[in-house]
Every structure is written in structure tokens, then in C-alpha cells.
Q: What sequence folds into this?
């Protein structure tokens, strides 16, 4: 399989690389573009990123295995990330995770068989005043209760 | 005298657009600083203002800037927008409501220190805010506040947004530098400090979003005014972020030295219906916990140090009496064992071990010696690690375990 970046992504990567006095600084931003483009960063993506930046693939893997937002496996169309840190915990985050586990029929870290949802628990999202809160892809949702969650999920196609 | 400084215009619609910001007097500070003041005069003013870092450690900003040595190397500014300290959300408000205030701070700081490239290192989850910052940056370029020859002063500056990717440790300043250079966020040994050897081995100033956002106000109104807003040794206001079991969680900008009790009960509306106060974490999760009878304390750096806690990021987490302290300890220890970068043994092994013990107690399999083991392990982390995350973990664990020992023992 020969995998390549789209023209749009290539242009974006050029722009990113130009910002930094040293090319390696562009790796993390380029990995964001990569994940957006392919959904995940496995060995194949590692290679094409390494080629574009003129570095060894291992340098890419070092980052993918360090930063929790980067993923080596494909995720569902909607990645639900529920905060279970302190402020959210105080306002019932654990019950809320249980509710989602029941509703979706998967455990945290798993993806539904139809590939629609992946459920994760995460550390503080920086939205503690709206606890309990979660992110679906890059959208924040706060002040959650089961009813609100039902509404949010039902609206996702 | 107007009460608020940083959040004064937050209610205004579209404040994040440059036209609206300029109608409120925005970019006047930049004009003043770059056209009428010398870098030395700016440094003097910031030093006199006793502006202490809002990211955690409370180091005076002016003093930090003065550590940048004279060299021919390029110099850099890194704005710390990683906001990973649990309980903290104030920088998100600043960047989403008033990104140009931060940009003005960046321009003036860079002019003062002789910097021509600045990076805003923002946590990866804040994608929408990163986009907003980029939009604000491009507006500022269009109006001649960024780029070449800013406001015809001969000064050049470029600003870039750099997104992290989910790692609490990257908020630590040297881990941030490593991450920005495209590596894993493993903290560096200090000294040398970033002011002399930082990004790409060049002198680098690292300051928190809120710290930098105060600069335009100091320039416009002067150091004396700024000190009157807070305390002589701790100038200005703070944006307190209150979360947990209060009626009105949110941000509250108040003078440094406001009492914790007033913040919780007057400003944040007190406890939620039917809840009683049990404990408060006063400065982000890393700050040692305070019990309900300790909340008379004034919220400033020195008062909290005296009470053996810390102001940290001024994030106040309010815990109620129905919450089990064992659960709190479980959340705290899970967080640090997950976020340890793994470079030092006491932090890597110590934290995960403590977390295992706490989980074991929660499962009802605790042993009599467990509490002492937690205390011993945490004491062995403290002071024995490469970066302050070790201490940041040990401090809350020790304080929670000591102050609530009885309750923890009831689970054994
Ligand atoms: C583990 C750890 C995490 C940190 N996270 C942050 C953070 O998210 N944001 C921040 O501004 N400072 C953070 N800091 C503090 C920074 O290392 C640094 O002191 C600060 O950015 C300096 O800016 P200031 O002087 O303006 O506060 C953290 C420190 C440690 C040890
Ligand atoms: S103290 Fe912990 S986080 Fe800091 S360098 Fe050591 S292992 Fe890494
Ligand atoms: S604790 Fe959940 S967002 Fe901060």
C-alpha cells in the first residue's frame, strides 16, 4: 500500500516546517496533521512522516508512544473522552463513566463494533468549572447529566 | 478604582476581534512601550510592580527577564499555555476571551528582552482556542502589531502557536522546551536555567499566559498602581478558578490577599445545597490540602507558604463532607503515577507504588502498615527528583495522608 499525504496536508506541513529554525521542532505539529489525515499513526504513517521531515521513523515512534493524544490504533468516528480528575470526580464523573459504559456497551479504551464510538477516561481537561465534563473529538461538553448525554449522543450521526 | 484588570472587558461581545479590542484602548500599551519607553525602562517598571509568575512557582517576572545574558545568539519567548494542573482553567478564559491582551504582553515582553520569535505552547486539547489565537495573530500582523517594524519602532517579532499532545509534564518549563524541540517531554537538569540555556540552547524566557497578560496593564498604569491592586510584594490581581462542590464554579478575578473563605462563600456562592465543607485544595492539585478550619487564610504566595501550602495556579478545588478522602487520594495518586515521565526512579516507582497501595485500601484489602508506607514512599520522592513534579506529587499526598489519617485508617 502506498500511502501519501493529501495535497492540502502537504501544503500545511510545508507551512509548519517553515516556522521553526530546526526541522525537528515540526514533528509534533506534523503528527497532529497526520492523525487528522489518517485517524491514527501506525508504522506506515511513521515512515511517511519520517520521510517528509528527513528523520528516522524511530523518532516519530518515540513521540507517538509518549503523548497520550496521539494514537497508534484507529478510533471510532467519535472519540468520547471523559475527565475523571478531581473536580469532575467530586461531581460524579465515575457514575457518569458507568452510565456511558452501560449505554455504549464498551469499557473505557474500547471502540463499539460499528466503529462509531471510542470511550476513554482522561485527566483534567481544563474545564473543571463545568464538571463533570467530556470531549467528543475536539468539542467540549460540560455540566453533564445522563439526559444531556443522551441528547448529545443522539445528535451524532 | 476599577476592580478588575485582566477580566474587565470579558463580558463584551467579540472582544477577541482586534477592532473591538482596540475600541477598549487595546494596543495603546504596545504603542507606548515601543515608541516612548526603552527596554531598560520597561524592565524597571515590571520589576517594581512585583509581578510574580502565575504558572505555579511565583517567581518575579522582571527578575527572571533580567537573567537573560547578553549574547549574539537569538533569544526566544515561550508562553506557557499548557494549563495541565488539575483544577486550573483560567488561561483558557484569557485566551478565548481576550487573545489580543496576551499578544500585547508578548510584544512588550519580547521588545524588553530583545526577542524576535515567540512561541505559545498550548495544550493539545485546546484546539479551538489555538485557532482563535492564530486568528488573532493574523489580525495583529495585518494591523502592523506583529511582523517587521512594529508600529514603526524598528522592532520585529513573529509569534507562533505550538500545540502539545496530552502530557501534564510538558507544563514544566524544561519539558516544555524539549517538547517544543520535537522530543519527548523529559525535563532537563537545572542549572543551567532556560533564561541562559533554553530553546535550541539559546536564552529563553518562559512565562505563564496570565503573567504575560498583566504586562500591558503595568505599562499603561504603572508599577505603583499595580502594587495597589494587590500586595507590596505580590502585585496585582489573581484569576482564581473555583471548582468542586460550590454553587457557582468559575473564574473570579480578585486582589491578591483576598481570604479563601470569602472566595468560596462570598464570590463562588458557598457550598452546593445540602453540602458541608470538608477540605480545600488552594492552588491546583499539587498544592497541599487545607482543612475546613484553615480557610481564613489570605490567598497570596507568602501567606500560603506560611501555612505549608502554596498558591500555585490559584485553582481552588472545594471538597465536601460526603466525599471520601480515600477517593480523593486515589484520584491524586493515579494522576501522578500516570503523568510521571519516568526519568527518575523515586517519582516513577514511588508514585505508582503509592497508587497501588491506595487502590488496595479502596478494595478493602488494606494492611495496618499501609498509611506509614504511603508516608515513607512520598517522603522518599520529595527532594530526590530531577524536576519539581516529584515534589508536586509528594506534597498533596503527604498533606492528605497526614491531615486525614484517621479517616484513612477507618478503611483498614
Ligand atoms: C509538573 C509541572 C507542571 C507545570 N505545568 C504548568 C502549566 O501547565 N502552566 C504553567 O504556566 N506553568 C506550569 N508549571 C510551571 C512552569 O514550570 C514554570 O514555572 C512557569 O511556566 C513559569 O512561568 P511564570 O513564572 O510566569 O509562572 C508546571 C511545573 C511543573 C513542575
Ligand atoms: S520527577 Fe518525575 S516527572 Fe520529573 S523528571 Fe523525574 S520522573 Fe520525570
Ligand atoms: S477535573 Fe475535569 S476538567 Fe478539570
A:
Amino acid at each position: 500500500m502506498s500511502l501519501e499525504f493529501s495535497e492540502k496536508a502537504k501544503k500545511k506541513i510545508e507551512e509548519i516546517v517553515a516556522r521553526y529554525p530546526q526541522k525537528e521542532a515540526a514533528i509534533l505539529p506534523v503528527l497532529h496533521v497526520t492523525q487528522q489525515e489518517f485517524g491514527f499513526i501506525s508504522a506506515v504513517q511513521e515512515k511517511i512522516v519520517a520521510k517528509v521531515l528527513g528523520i528516522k521513523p524511530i523518532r516519530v515512534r518515540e513521540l507517538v508512544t509518549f503523548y497520550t493524544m496521539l494514537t497508534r490504533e484507529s478510533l471510532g468516528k467519535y472519540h468520547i473522552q471523559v475527565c475523571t480528575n478531581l473536580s469532575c470526580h467530586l461531581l460524579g464523573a465515575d457514575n457518569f463513566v458507568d452510565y456511558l459504559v452501560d449505554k455504549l456497551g464498551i469499557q473505557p479504551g474500547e471502540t463499539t463494533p460499528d466503529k462509531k464510538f471510542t470511550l476513554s477516561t482522561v485527566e483534567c481537561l481544563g474545564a473543571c468549572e463545568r464538571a463533570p465534563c467530556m470531549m467528543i473529538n475536539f468539542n467540549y461538553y460540560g455540566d453533564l447529566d445522563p439526559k444531556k448525554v443522551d441528547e448529545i449522543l443522539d445528535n451524532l450521526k | 478604582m476599577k476592580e478588575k484588570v485582566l477580566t474587565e472587558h470579558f463580558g463584551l461581545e467579540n472582544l477577541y476581534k482586534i477592532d473591538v479590542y482596540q475600541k477598549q484602548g487595546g494596543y495603546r500599551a504596545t504603542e507606548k512601550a515601543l515608541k516612548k519607553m526603552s527596554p531598560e525602562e520597561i524592565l524597571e517598571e515590571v520589576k517594581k510592580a512585583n509581578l510574580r509568575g502565575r504558572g505555579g512557582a511565583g517567581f518575579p517576572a522582571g527578575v527572571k527577564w533580567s537573567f537573560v545574558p547578553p549574547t549574539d545568539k537569538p533569544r526566544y519567548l515561550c508562553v506557557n499555555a499548557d494549563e495541565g494542573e488539575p483544577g486550573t482553567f483560567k488561561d483558557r478564559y484569557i485566551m478565548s476571551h481576550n487573545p489580543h491582551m496576551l499578544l500585547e504582553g508578548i510584544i512588550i515582553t519580547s521588545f524588553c528582552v530583545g526577542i524576535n520569535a515567540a512561541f505559545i505552547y498550548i495544550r493539545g486539547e485546546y484546539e479551538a482556542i489555538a485557532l482563535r489565537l492564530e486568528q488573532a495573530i493574523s489580525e495583529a500582523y495585518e494591523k502592523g502589531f506583529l511582523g517587521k517594524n512594529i508600529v514603526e519602532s524598528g522592532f520585529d517579532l513573529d509569534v507562533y502557536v505550538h500545540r502539545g499532545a496530552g502530557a501534564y509534564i510538558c507544563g514544566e518549563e524544561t519539558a516544555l522546551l524539549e517538547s517544543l524541540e520535537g522530543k519527548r517531554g523529559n525535563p532537563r537538569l537545572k542549572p543551567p536555567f532556560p533564561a541562559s540555556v533554553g530553546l535550541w540552547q539559546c536564552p529563553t524566557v518562559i512565562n505563564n499566559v496570565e503573567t504575560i497578560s498583566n504586562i500591558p496593564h503595568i505599562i499603561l498604569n504603572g508599577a505603583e498602581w499595580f502594587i495597589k491592586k494587590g500586595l507590596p510584594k505580590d502585585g496585582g490581581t489573581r484569576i482564581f478558578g473555583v471548582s468542586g462542590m460550590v454553587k457557582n464554579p468559575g473564574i473570579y478575578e480578585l486582589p491578591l490577599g483576598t481570604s479563601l473563605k470569602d472566595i468560596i462563600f462570598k464570590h463562588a456562592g458557598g457550598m452546593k445545597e445540602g453540602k458541608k465543607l470538608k477540605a480545600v485544595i488552594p492552588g491546583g492539585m499539587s498544592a497541599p490540602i487545607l482543612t475546613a478550619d484553615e480557610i481564613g487564610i489570605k490567598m497570596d504566595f507568602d501567606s500560603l507558604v506560611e501555612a505549608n501550602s502554596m498558591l500555585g495556579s490559584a485553582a481552588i478545588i472545594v471538597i465536601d463532607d460526603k466525599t471520601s478522602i480515600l477517593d480523593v487520594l486515589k484520584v491524586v495518586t493515579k494522576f501522578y503515577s500516570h503523568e510521571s515521565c519516568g526519568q527518575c526512579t523515586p517519582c516513577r516507582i514511588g508514585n505508582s507504588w503509592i497508587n497501588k497501595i491506595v487502590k488496595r485500601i479502596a478494595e478493602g484489602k488494606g494492611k495496618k502498615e499501609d498509611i506509614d508506607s504511603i508516608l515513607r514512599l512520598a517522603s522518599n520522592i520529595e527532594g530526590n527528583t530531577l524536576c519539581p513534579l516529584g515534589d508536586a506529587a509528594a506534597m498533596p499526598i503527604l498533606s492528605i495522608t497526614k491531615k486525614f489519617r484517621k479517616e484513612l485508617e477507618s478503611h483498614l
Remarks:
- Strands of chain B lie at 76-81, 117-122, 147-150, 155-163, 204-208, 237-244, 250-255, 277-281, 290-291, 315-320.
- Chain B has a mean pLDDT of 97.
